[in-house]
Design a protein that fits this description.
This protein has 5 helices and 5 strands. The chain has 180 residues and is α+β, with helices and mostly antiparallel strands. A 3-stranded antiparallel beta sheet has the order 3-4-5. A hairpin with a 2-residue loop joins strand 3 and strand 4. One of its GO terms (cellular component) is extracellular space.
Length: 180
């Protein structure tokens, strides 16, 4: 929310003192309701304008506690600003065994293409079961699904077909921004 809009809203709210509307005014009813059983989430009021570093520390502390210390620095200092109006934070730590282990002897050094166009050699896990992991082919990318042992969960890998296709893939997957 822009500072000008915030100032305008504040001025209009001031016109409503003593519950009398005497000039152009605005009334607000803002709340967030969250189904805890679905999201296990909390809504909290914070002071981004004056305590942005404290908010970052608080978010990091919450993530560290909820992930049993496995994710320590979720938000780096300086990533939020005083004009931040809303923050959604989700952290996920996932560790498990694959349903079908990769054979270490089938690991091969292969080309990996960096965003700057450079190509480096890195070890790739390979499998004879490659086609069984293919979830689907889509316009410009494919999705691989590798199930975890003893569960209904799988890890999904979104892989662009083009060596420089990651930015296009990310753009396809993005929700519209909340900025206006």
């Amino acid at each position: 929310m822009s500072l000008q809009f915030t100032s305008m809203v504040s001025n209009l709210k001031d016109n409503n003192k003593n519950n009398r509307i005497t000039s152009p005014s605005i009334l607000f009813a803002n709340s967030v309701w969250i189904d805890r059983s679905s999201y296990n989430a909390k809504a909290k009021e914070v002071d981004f304008a004056n305590k942005v570093d404290q908010v970052i520390d608080e978010v990091n502390s919450c993530v560290k506690n909820e992930t049993k210390g496995l994710i320590k620095n979720f938000l780096p200092l300086g990533c939020l600003y005083g004009d931040t109006a809303l923050l959604f934070a989700n952290a996920l730590y996932c560790k498990g065994q694959w349903d079908q282990k990769f054979d270490k002897t089938r690991t091969r050094n292969m080309n990996f293409h960096l965003l700057d166009g450079e190509t480096v050699q890195v070890p790739f896990m390979t499998s004879k079961r490659g086609s069984r992991h293919l979830y689907g082919l889509f316009g410009g990318y494919k999705i691989l699904s590798i199930p975890y042992q003893g569960s209904d969960f799988s890890m999904y890998f979104f892989l662009p077909n083009e060596t420089d296709g990651l930015p296009k893939l990310v753009k396809k997957l993005k929700y519209p921004t909340l900025d206006s």
